[in-house]
Design goal:
Layout: H1 3-49, H2 61-74, H3 79-91, H4 94-101, H5 107-116, H6 123-135, H7 139-149, H8 155-163, H9 170-183, H10 200-210, H11 218-233, H12 246-262, H13 271-274, H14 279-287, H15 295-303, H16 310-324, H17 328-335, H18 342-353, H19 356-366, H20 368-381, H21 385-393, H22 397-413, H23 415-424, H24 427-432, H25 451-475, H26 477-480, H27 485-531, H28 534-537, E1 546-552, H29 559-567, E2 574-581, H30 587-595, E3 598-600, E4 613-618, E5 625-630, H31 635-645, E6 650-654, E7 658-660, H32 664-670, E8 678-688, E9 693-695, E10 698-701, H33 708-730, E11 741-745, H34 746-752, H35 758-761, H36 768-782, E12 787-799, H37 805-825, H38 836-870, H39 875-901, H40 909-942
Parallel strand pairs: 1-2, 1-6, 2-5, 8-12
Antiparallel strand pairs: 3-4, 4-5, 6-11, 7-12, 8-11, 9-10
Helix pairs in contact: 1-2, 1-39, 4-5, 5-7, 5-27, 6-7, 7-9, 9-10, 10-12, 11-12, 12-14, 14-16, 15-16, 16-18, 18-20, 22-23, 25-38, 27-33, 27-38, 27-39, 33-39, 33-40, 37-38, 37-40, 38-40, 39-40
Length: about 950
């Protein structure tokens, strides 16, 4: 290319950059204008139809519709007002427009129109929606249809709902069941004949509905179905069940037993249920005993103990029985000396631990010997949390004196119990009982040499060093032996620069392609998010339950705000599990004091191996908060502990120093309603919180950080998340879900063994978030699942980024080491078509541009400096270098900022101007400097350095 051609191209990019800047401010202005018009339209509708104040309409159909939906989301309109607005919208053609769009070939347009029809009720709308439901093949579109029809259920709609189940996934069935559970009670419908059909999907929905909705005519259907399944399980052929997977039939079997026991009052005291080899059957049968009040029933359960998981269910049932009839505790106390079987004593210890206050206060007066036996029973079985909690709260000195005398021989015989007393008694009680607090041993991280990985990296390093010289020699055979050394060096430097231009041009082209995909995907996500109404999102079982896991290590500066932020999320069903990973500061103490937590026994039987759990803390007034204290094992190990303790369908890993927007979790999970694939993992956008004003876990103001380093990271995060993550997600090859805000299906986590740690899979890594996604992808591809790993740029998580250079570069070094470790561990996936686009597109991208790229870039930077210093480079080469490294880099950064701010602006105009400046200056040395540290990360990987490194926190600005 000539100088003129290069300057023209640079001019085009500069003009495009200016265009993006203009569009950035115009979109900001447009957003404000739309908000203002929508507010005025809301005022018009309220005053005209609720206050009967005449007014002149001057709004577009889109603004009127948006305003009406916004009003319906906030207040309950009278039927008169609804009918008046509906008639007005019919006259203005708004209803006709929605019906036309509901048949659009574009899915997002179709779904948005269907969602809007929820707010209107005409025979034409009902007819249209029923036709769509009948012919629609995509289940995620059907979900929108049944949600819009739920207020209109009659016999015809119910029949259409049932017909839509045939051949559907379990995910769709669960959504439909939630709607039927809520709305079927208000409808007179004939159900028995509908649910006697033989299709398995209908049987599944019927059984699930029977567990939450009582109809006497269902009893006979359930009984007949139970007999049919038990005959099938005994070996008899069944036309419905035999062709299916046994797991699916067993799930139906459990549902029938549960419905008969808890909804229809059928007794399950048959020994074939109570002593079944299937622990789930035992759980259901044991729970059916909970309303009984007989010592005979208790003895039945105790005598069946066998040391398996089933004993936990039997113990739970016994505890419920004693709550119904507290006098039975006395009978149980009399049994303690007579029971010798360890598993039976374990069950009694479980029951007594929940009644420790009652037992201590009663037996201290009546029978100290019996009390001593009970304490010894609880101590030998590890049920001591409530007992120690009682001692800490007790202020009666006579009780302390009696307990001191009683506990001395027990602690002398039971070293573990003595250690627990030393660990968890308060300081004054520990001193009274003559105990010393045991020192906590620091975690010693073992580095296990990985010979194959080291050889692979050394080979790649050698290739990266010699590749360019070898290519140069092969392409210059005619001249390399005939020219002088200075001429050879000159030619080599020029060749390196030309190759560097090609490398950067290719990388930028890939990023431009990802940006295009990102723009399309982000636009679609925002349309679909705005289409979902609160009635849909908060419908029972519409969104799966979530366990939010927040590992915490030395987070005392921000832990309380973070937990408050999590507890205040807008989401129908979730729990928060904070895992204190052996913090050296007061993280745990702050949590206990602020949320008034009490220690409970550790009862979890881990599904994934982890470092030992020390204790669990809860507050009965905050049932969805659990705090876990464990030995230090790293973030991944802490996440695995949270997975073991979780009770939800999905788990969400989040950094303890991070804050979520109130609707972030709902925003992220709601994307599941827009796909038919199995959602295995989801990731949200990470935004630096430095500079933001935070009050009690809520963001009061979004301001840019004052630190130049933090501002540069803001631009970097925008580019990485708004282009890279969304683009790869659209390509169905996303391999990174940020550890600061990542969500996973619990089932797949258990199947793959959880996060990669020494405890779980005999290997540690500092890139546990990406590694888990890669391993899940690998498993899904091998199992030939129709899966997705998604990303939502509108679901935002705010996290603190480093503001000092030492911490920042330590973090970047860790990221590079993690990436290299993952690519090494899963190198069989690279360019392997067995792993679909993930192996054929994403893995090669990370291998070439993210892992090996810095090794080549460093050589290229040296060549650029030599070329400029000694005048080896022509003006054309210098201009091309400026084009591919600076001009195109600035354009990409501006593009990422535009994608972020196009619909819902985050920053004020003056902060946007500052970010524009950052988008320019980061290209002059900063990105090149980071490449040096990525090379350092490569050499750290050769040294087997898996250290995580501590991050210095400054805390949230208040």
């Amino acid at each position: 290319m000539s100088v003129k051609d290069i300057l023209i191209v640079m001019g085009i990019f500069l003009v495009l950059s200016l265009f993006l800047i203009v569009m950035l401010f115009l979109s900001h202005k447009r957003h404000i204008a739309i908000m203002k018009k929508t507010g005025l339209a809301e005022n018009y509708l309220v005053s005209h139809y609720l206050d009967n104040t005449p007014g002149k309409i001057r709004f577009s159909r889109a603004i009127l519709l948006k305003a009406y939906i916004s009003i319906c989301e906030e207040i309950a309109l009278t039927d008169e007002a609804k009918n008046g607005i509906q008639d007005d919208f019919i006259r203005r053609g708004i209803i006709r427009m929605l019906i036309r769009r509901s048949n659009s070939i574009f899915v997002s347009v179709r779904k948005k129109a269907i969602a809007s029809l929820y707010y209107f009720d005409t025979p034409e709308i009902k007819k249209t929606l029923l036709k769509i439901l009948e012919r629609e093949k995509k289940e995620h579109v059907k979900i929108y249809v049944i949600n819009s029809l739920k207020n209109k259920i009659d016999q015809q709609i119910l029949q259409a709902f049932v017909d839509s189940i045939i051949g559907s996934r379990r995910f769709y069935q669960r959504r439909l069941i939630g709607i039927l559970n809520h709305y079927l009670l208000h409808v007179e419908a004939h159900l028995a004949n509908i649910f006697r059909r033989q299709e398995m999907e209908i049987k599944e929905v019927f059984v699930d509905l029977s567990n939450i909705y009582y109809r006497e005519e269902f009893r006979d259907i359930l009984t007949d179905e139970l007999k049919a399944i038990e005959k099938y399980l005994a070996g008899e052929y069944n036309i419905t069940y035999t062709p299916l997977r046994r797991e699916r039939v067993m799930r139906l079997y459990y549902g029938i037993l549960s419905a008969l026991a808890f909804v229809y009052g059928t007794s399950l005291d048959d020994i074939r249920y109570l002593d079944s080899e299937d622990s789930e059957v035992v759980r259901i049968a044991s729970d059916s005993f909970c309303n009984r009040e007989s010592i005979t029933d208790i003895m039945t359960l105790i005598n069946l103990s066998n040391g398996t998981l089933s004993d936990d269910y039997r113990s739970h049932a016994i505890l419920k029985i004693t709550e119904n009839n507290p006098l039975l505790i006395k009978d149980l106390l009399e049994m303690v000396p007579k029971i010798a079987k360890p598993e039976q004593r374990l069950m009694l210890a479980h029951v007594f631990s929940h009644r420790v206050d009652y037992l201590l206060l009663r037996l201290l007066r009546e029978n100290e010997k019996q009390l001593s036996d009970i304490i010894q029973l609880m101590a030998e079985n590890g049920y001591t949390a409530d007992f120690i909690d009682f001692l800490n709260k007790n202020r009666d000195k006579s009780i302390d004196a009696s307990m001191k005398k009683m506990l001395q021989p027990i602690m002398a015989e039971n070293e573990i119990f003595a250690k627990e007393m030393s660990e968890y008694l308060s300081d004054d009680k520990r001193k009274y009982f003559g105990l010393a607090k045991p020192p906590r041993q620091p975690r010693v991280k073992k580095i296990i040499p990985e010979v194959r990985k080291t050889k692979w990296l050394l080979t790649l390093l050698i290739v990266a060093i010699v590749l360019c010289p070898v290519i140069f020699v092969l392409t210059h055979l005619n001249t390399v032996f005939n020219e002088s050394f200075n001429d050879i060096i000159k030619d080599y430097v020029r060749s390196l620069n030309i190759w560097f231009i090609g490398y950067y041009f290719l990388a930028n082209c890939i990023y431009f392609f990802l940006a295009l995909l990102s723009y399309v995907g982000d636009t679609r996500q925002r349309v679909l998010w705005n289409a979902k109404n609160k009635s849909m999102l908060f419908e029972k079982d519409m969104l799966p339950s979530i366990s939010i896991i927040a590992p915490a290590y030395n987070e005392e500066l921000s832990i309380i705000e973070s937990v408050h932020s999590l507890l205040n999320l807008d989401y129908p069903s979730f729990e928060v599990i904070v895992v204190n990973d052996g913090s050296k500061d007061k993280t745990l103490e702050k949590l206990i004091d602020h949320f008034q937590l009490e220690r409970k026994n550790v009862l979890s039987k881990p599904l994934i191996n982890t470092k030992p759990v020390r204790s669990i803390y809860v507050n009965s007034q905050l049932p969805n908060l659990v705090v876990v204290d464990k030995e230090n094992g790293g973030k991944a190990d802490a996440l695995n502990v949270g997975i073991n303790l979780s009770h939800s369908e999905y788990v969400c890993g989040i950094d303890a120093d991070s804050l979520l927007e109130r609707d972030s979790l709902m925003n992220l999970m709601s994307t599941m309603l827009d796909h038919d694939e199995i959602t295995l993992a989801l990731g949200g956008a990470i935004v630096p919180v430095n500079g933001f004003i935070v009050d009690k876990g809520q963001i009061e103001a979004k301001l840019l950080p004052k630190s130049l380093l933090a501002r540069l990271q803001v631009i970097e995060y925008l580019r990485a998340f708004n282009i890279s993550r969304t683009g790869f997600a659209e390509l169905r090859s996303l391999l990174i879900v940020s550890g600061a805000f990542g969500l996973f299906e619990k089932r797949i986590l258990i199947e793959v063994g959880g996060y990669l740690t020494e405890s779980s899979l005999n290997k540690d890594t500092v890139g546990e978030d990406m590694e888990l996604v890669v391993r899940i992808t690998r498993r899904a591809c091998l199992d030939k699942l129709n899966y997705r790993i998604g990303y939502s740029g509108t679901a935002r998580c705010y996290t603190e980024v480093p503001e000092d250079g030492k911490t920042f570069f330590r973090q970047r070094n860790r990221w590079q080491r993690g990436l290299i470790d993952i690519l090494s561990y899963h190198r069989k996936m690279i360019m392997n078509p067995k792993y679909r686009l993930a192996g054929f597109v994403a893995m090669p991208y990370f291998f070439i541009f993210e892992m090996l790229g810095p090794l080549f870039e460093i050589q290229a930077y040296a060549a650029v400096l030599l070329g400029i210093l000694f005048g080896f480079l022509s003006i054309e080469i210098i201009l091309l270098l400026l084009l591919v490294t600076i001009v195109m880099g600035i354009f990409l950064s501006l593009l990422s900022l535009c994608i972020s701010e196009k619909v819902e602006p985050t920053f004020k105009p003056k902060d946007i101007i500052r970010l524009l400046v950052m988008a320019v200056i980061e290209n002059f040395g900063w990105r090149q400097y980071i490449a040096l540290y990525r090379v350092k990360g490569f050499f750290s990987s050769l040294k087997e350095n898996n250290a995580w490194g501590e991050m210095n926190r400054v805390g949230f600005r208040k």
